[in-house]
Amino acid sequence: MTDxxxxxxxxxxxxxxxxxxxxxxxxxxxxxxxxxxxxxRDALAEESSxxxxxxxxxxxxxxxxxxxxxxxxxxxxxxxAVTINEQFELSRELWHFLLTSGRLPxxxxxxxxxxxxxxxxxxxxxxYLRRRADALRAHHLFAGLEFTDDPEVIRTWAPLxxxxxxxxxxxxxxxxxxxxxxxxxxxxxxxxxxxxARGATVRLEHEVRxxxxxxxxxxxxxxxxRRWNASPRKRTIDARFVFIGAGGGALHLLQKSGIPExxxxxxxxxxxxxxxxxNPDLVAQHQAKVYGKADVGSPPMSVPxxxxxxxxxxxxxxxxxxxxxxxxxxKAGSPLDLxxxxxxxxxxxxxxxxxxxVDLVKYLISxxxxxxxxxxxxxxxxMPTAHPRDWELITAGQRVQVIxxxxxxxxxxxxxxxxxxxxxGTIAGLLGASPGASTAVSTMVxxxxxxxxxxxDGWRPQLRxxxxxxxxxxxxxxxxxxxxxDDAQVGA
Length: 492
Ligand SMILES: Cc1cc2nc3c(=O)[nH]c(=O)nc-3n(C[C@H](O)[C@H](O)[C@H](O)COP(=O)(O)OP(=O)(O)OC[C@H]3O[C@@H](n4cnc5c(N)ncnc54)[C@H](O)[C@@H]3O)c2cc1C
What we know:
Blueprint: E1 2-4, E2 8-13, H1 17-29, E3 35-38, H2 79-100, E4 111-113, E5 116-121, H3 123-137, E6 146-148, H4 151-157, E7 171-176, E8 180-182, H5 184-197, E9 201-203, E10 206-213, E11 219-225, E12 234-244, H6 250-257, E13 266-277, H7 280-285, E14 289-291, E15 305-311, E16 314-324, H8 337-340, H9 344-356, H10 358-368, H11 372-382, E17 392-395, E18 399-406, E19 410-414, E20 417-421, E21 427-432, H12 440-451, H13 456-466, H14 473-477
Parallel strand pairs: 1-12, 2-3, 2-12, 3-9, 5-14, 12-21
Antiparallel strand pairs: 4-8, 5-7, 6-7, 10-11, 11-12, 13-16, 13-17, 13-18, 14-15, 15-16, 18-19, 20-21
Helix pairs in contact: 1-5, 1-12
Bound molecules: flavin-adenine dinucleotide.
């Protein structure tokens, strides 16, 4: 039996950081709008936004080498780094606004100041890091970046990187003291609590199965109630605006919506694992997020890093990620997810990507078959004294990298995020994974501009109050903001 609920203004599919962010913004901009969040799991933030399913790095380009590619002439391109840094600043501004305006509980803890370091080995990498630091420091956003190639200085920054290191291989590091570790799971729950306090509804164990646009432009969603005692088991909800913030589940739902803008997109799932230690002796010796350099030929999301994590008030160290292969699009998804996503419209891009990315496939096979010894070897390149007894292997969130049509190459694989919006602005969905949570606010500002063009003018003063750095003249003149899809080479 199907039950029908009344029309709501905004339905957000998925209870992760993206829906939580958008719901928070809309509930400030339009306090009278009805908002409903539908989540298939029995709790919020159980997929990628869960603290242990991602690395919790507040991506501000303070340590990630993939934001600063080297040009053929040897100079360093810092444009992407500047964009990411500005986007993370927007996130911080919104969080600050929500905290200071009482929309997040006073003293709510989800962000821990944690210096961001980059660590490299070998003369060539040391030279690159020095040039990169010089290029970044010339920009006021990175003026405080420190560089050293002195092991004794690195020892004072992060002793575990140096202790037990033998040989005379050159090493170098940069340090940005203003880095952060973010518990995106706690943040998601806090943001949703805030919007619920202001009248929004959350329905857990509610899975959106179908979406159909009605003649008046609104959307009818068919939703399965997965609770064991549900009655009725199905309901329909009508919504004037739908955001598909379903993470790995977004591709299927966008495809089901039938909007032409979703045609041609495919997904390439990559799973991941981290090593984690809670050994207090080790935890006490490392208070930083240290990003290294990805191996040649490996994808950007495989950049190894050794991180301080603060989750639920407890501190731990995390190392990884080790990539893996799974056909699922969500951690709690189905092995048929990949097969089910194949459509006539995305077959060519998917085949093209499969044929062209042999190196990636090889890399994934080598990661899947990696033994404990090999995983330890990777960790020891960072932390020479690492002992297996201290570390446990945990499964991270599932990423679905975006495959999209390309006019000459058939299809390309993207490592960024892609906001897909219908031309009439009644529905939008977010594909892809990186840099993800850190830049959720910037992505949602982009969404507001694209889906609510007639409203955004009126919202501008409020948006500026929420995020003062949006107030620049560029933003006044044009709402054209840089697309996240351009940030293809970003690691998380
Ligand atoms: C290994 C890894 C490391 C990462 N590290 C970082 C990092 O250090 N810093 C950073 O900023 N970002 C990082 N990211 C990216 C970041 O975690 C994601 O971009 C972000 O969490 C995505 O949020 P979301 O709300 O879109 O998706 P999710 O958090 O996955 O939420 C989507 C929700 O939708 C629900 N859902 C799916 N289908 C349906 C349906 N049909 N009906 C109802 N509900 C549905 C799911 O159950 C889920 O709860 C990392 C990601 C991974 C996988």
